[in-house]
Amino acid sequence: MDSFDYNTFIGRIWFERRDIVSGGYDRSLNYIKGIFPEMEIHSYPSGTNVWTWVIPEKWSVKSAYIKAGNKILLDLDDHPLHVMSYSTPFSGSISQEELMSHLHTRCEYPDAIPFEFSYYQPKWGFCIQHDKLKDFTFKKYDVLIDSTFERGELKVGCYYIKGRIDKEIVIIAHLCHPCMVDDGLSGVAVLLKIADFCKNNDNYYSYRFLILPETIGSIAYLSHNEHIIEKLQYGIFLEMLGHDDLFSLQRSIQGNTLIDRAAFLSLKQNTTEFRAGGFYDVVGNDERVFNGIGVNVPTISISRSNFWSNGHYPEYHTSADTPDIITAGRLIEAQAIVINLLKMLNLNYYPKAIVKGPIFLTRYGLWVDWRIDASLNAKQEMIFNYLHYGKKSIIDIAYELDLSFDQVKNWLDKFYENNLIEKLSSAHAIKREDD
Ligand SMILES: [Zn+2]
What we know:
Layout: H1 6-13, H2 23-35, E1 40-45, E2 49-50, E3 53-54, E4 58-68, E5 71-75, E6 90-95, H3 96-100, E7 103-104, E8 126-127, E9 140-150, E10 153-161, E11 168-174, H4 185-199, E12 206-212, H5 216-224, E13 232-238, E14 247-250, H6 258-270, E15 274-277, H7 286-291, E16 299-303, H8 328-347, E17 350-353, H9 374-389, H10 394-401, H11 405-417, E18 421-424, H12 426-434
Parallel strand pairs: 7-8, 11-12, 11-13, 13-16, 14-15
Antiparallel strand pairs: 1-10, 2-3, 4-5, 4-9, 6-9, 10-12, 14-16, 17-18
Helix pairs in contact: 4-8, 6-8, 6-10, 10-11
């Protein structure tokens, strides 16, 4: 991959009309392919059944307006979001009452155009700044939405990196929100940087990076690649990473798997404060598909979104979700958190004692001086107990004893060097738990 900086990447494609099956989406994915040639593009034609869903048609809109007499009240040329995504075509002269039933505004953000869509129910609609409603004082309006539906192809970008084992970690981001940045595109940008890092790394797990249109893209890809589902060990969904807020970890549906714990440890290590919630507390995107029926892969999400119950960031799903509300620095923080959690999973092992009795720590230089590391000193005895069974990994021990991954690993590595423990692979340990 040619190195790219976040501002250049986002500047190049954020204003594309990236509807789920659309010319703008395809141009954006082709641009990504240009800087990341290793990525494969998979295509699924409109009308294809994918599990219980159907791939929609390709949608485009050439022109649209609302006029009253000679006055133009709304013009698509002013902003692409003025027409609801996947709006059916319409032209005619209509009453005020009828127009209002097709006009979407966001009163909480009155100078922004809301992003509205109707992918699966045929409807037409316009979106406009709430502040502009005061101009709509006429009895009759001439309206036009010159949109077209045609057969097209839904596109998914996939980049696979073979690790030492076939078990995979899948990392997912969606590219499909038109003319917006934080929702969707920020996750794609961070995903690409992580893929670039993993490409040159010695990886324990294999990795599968997916860039797709939200929900339907995950369903299309998985339904055509069911054979990989059993290989998927964990998933990470990324979005809303650039705006000014704390990070949020949304746990997998299982809630307490290794990736849930690794993500928690990484956030604790890299931030002073973050939110952590259960499944569906924060976002509801592609992680629903990966955690969901027939797939059931523990999939977390990392974002800066607040919990549903507290509302999203103010610019969410509006024309105000622009490069102005994100910074490259915040994306770099997100990148570091995910890379750090992947490193933990990469270096993780299950320590099991191969000696008997309490270990004579001083003999091996393993006694932890409380003056140097008080927290580890206080928990040495607890870790001993875990070594008997070998069912707790470094990540589990660090998580349960509120230590850092590096503290625990550096100490236990010395046990290994002194032939006091063996290192079990995760697969081996999980099998034992099942026995
Ligand atoms: Zn969204």
